[in-house]
Write a structure and sequence with these properties.
Helices cover 49% and strands 21% of the residues. Helix 1 packs antiparallel against helix 2 (35-63), helix 2 (35-63) packs parallel to helix 6 and helix 3 packs across helix 4 (115-132). The protein is of the alpha+beta class. It has helices at residues 2-31, 35-63, 78-92, 115-132, 163-169, 187-200; strands at 74-77, 99-104, 110-113, 138-146, 149-156, 204-210, 213-223.
Length: 229
């Protein structure tokens, strides 16, 4: 019971932050008469709203993962999904550093996954990388072959993951929402959701701690059948 209460508290805390920022931006919007500043604030409001909607949708998916035939796994093109994530992320951060570059070396192109769930995992990895890296860093989204699987990873230059979180991710993923003090603004919620989605697809999450950041990756079973998605 205590674990459930702590989980609810973590989710509430993570969702409260963007609402507080939206309120502050709305107040600033009322106080400015500068057109360029108005447009900047409006863009921020839209961006935060879209991210929050994405998180609410992810939480809804996580709650209904194991309903019969709800999230079917099938052969999907990992490059196609990664490119869709890059398009979505770049539309939000087009005028902002740090950058996110793609580097694909995989010879196996299809993986067994659910396209919605895989999209959410990669999206969460990418937005976290941009959110926590400094302005001069160049984050990388990579796809590579790894022992018969396809590995999709995002290298960022943000604060280090706590040892307990790093260990949990490499031992099956997070089992409950958590708050990561060094990576606030929904990072712990993102990793919990990604853990649940990966477990459902029989994929594996990996976390590597560097002296100047973190690499988060998901490894998926490769397949040779085509996808209609």
């Amino acid at each position: 019971m205590r674990r459930e209460v702590e989980s609810f508290a973590a989710v509430a805390h993570e969702l409260k932050t963007p609402l507080a920022i939206l309120r502050q931006l709305a107040l600033l919007l009322e106080c400015t008469n500068d057109q360029s500043e108005t447009q900047r604030i409006q863009h921020q409001i839209v961006k935060i709203t879209e991210h929050t909607i994405q998180h609410v949708n992810d939480l809804t998916r996580a709650a209904s993962l194991y309903q019969p035939s709800h999230f079917v796994t099938e052969p999907v093109s990992v490059r196609k999904i990664c490119n869709q994530v890059l398009d979505a992320v770049s539309s939000f951060y087009k005028n902002k550093q740090p950058k996110l570059q793609a580097h694909y070396t995989n010879k196996k192109h299809l993986a067994t996954a659910n396209p919605e769930l895989l999209y959410s995992i990669i999206y969460n990895f990418c937005t976290n990388a941009i959110r926590y890296s400094d302005q001069d860093s160049i984050n990388k989204l990579t796809i590579s072959d790894r022992q018969g699987k396809i590995s999709i990873g995002v290298r960022d230059y943000g604060p280090a993951l706590p040892t307990t979180i790093w260990r949990e991710l490499n031992q099956g993923g997070l089992t409950s929402p958590t708050i990561i003090a060094m990576r606030p603004d929904r990072s712990g919620l993102d990793l919990y959701i990604s853990s649940q989605f990966a477990q459902y697809m029989h994929a594996e999450l990996r976390a590597i701690r560097h002296h100047d950041g973190t690499t988060l990756s998901v490894e998926l079973p490769a397949t040779t059948q085509a996808s209609l998605w």
